[in-house]
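Incident log, structure service

09:12 report received: a user says their structure output differs between two submissions of the same chain.
09:20 pulled the input from the user's history:
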Amino acid sequence: MSAAIAFFKSIPRHFMKSMTFDNGGVFFLHHELTKKIKIPTYFRDVYTSWQKEGIEDMNGRLRRDLPLKTDLINMRDEDLEQIVFSHNLPPKKVFDSYSLNAALILFICEFLVIKKSFLFFSCSRFMSSSSR
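09:34 re-ran on a clean worker, output below:
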């Protein structure tokens, strides 16, 4: 759990609103996340995969490249990063047909414009010139 806490603490607070877990025993220490990271945690109802539809879809796609018995310990970091990167490229309906990578860039640009009141390049021009 300490590795998960360290990971989530490294993410800027404004990127996290809450966390929803499956009902597996893996997450029995979820209260530690709530206490240390100060975000609410939830569990989806049993047999309701549609409550985390995006994750279920992504898990299915990842299983094409990483079958259940894949030994992740012996995989090179570069290979794993390439798989994750390639799965973040297709456009997603939930992100208004932007890819996850493009949606994240747009979100960061909007955050900088709103919160910092300055930005040295036009995010909207960047997004309109990049492919969705």
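09:41 both user submissions now match this output. Likely a transient worker issue. Closing.
09:42 reviewer note: The first strand starts at residue 19 and ends at 21. Residues 1-43 form one domain.
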